[in-house]
Amino acid sequence: MRTRTPSPTLSVATGSSSFPQPAFQGFQQRFRFSLTPWREWLKEQRESGNYNASRIWREMVARGFTGSETIVRDAVAKWRKGWNPPVTTAVRLPSVSRVSRWLMPWRITRDEENYASRFISLMCEKEPELKIAQQLALEFYRILKTQNKSQLSSWFTRVHESGSAEFRRVAAGMEADAAAICEAISSRWSNGVVEGHVNRLKKMLKRQMYGRAGFELLRQRVMSPLA
């Protein structure tokens, strides 16, 4: 039988009391032994996402490693076989109008309830003024719903003490019309019906005067029936 093995090698093999181990096995043992003390440190690098073999080897040399860069490259290559790069997705922030709507809990729809609640909680935690503004808005809403105009003056006081410049400006304008606001809170009448009729008449006039609109024509249309 021809084995193509040199005679000296066969002589050593036949004269040995045990089966000779392949030459590469000793290399594997040396490979495993050289990285054994670094097992935990290499595990930390892998978990942190550091797959740069050259950078890992340089850091190991700085820490006292005496092995070659090839050994480190072979170890890192095994990591890459089961490694998938993290997928990053762009997060689209809600618009200002949507956030202002979310500040009123009853205006949050069911499909956005979880996200909106967490988002507003985080915003109020980061911006305390936003939390104060939400509380003041909810208090004013409760005054309107309960028609309790006696709480309006105390609400104005809390607004001025809140430190919010925007709310103070709004409250200053509302205080000038406090009497009208109190009547609007307590009265069961509303000008909503009148506003609706005015809007319908205005739209009707616009459609009838389309293409020839002007102040003179508008005055004839409005003033002539009243003359």
UniProtKB/TrEMBL annotation:
Superkingdom as given in the UniProt entry: Bacteria
InterPro entries the UniProt entry points to: Transpos_ISL3, Transposase_DDE
Limits of the Transposase IS204/IS1001/IS1096/IS1165 DDE domain: 100-222
Protein name, per record: Transposase IS204/IS1001/IS1096/IS1165 DDE domain-containing protein
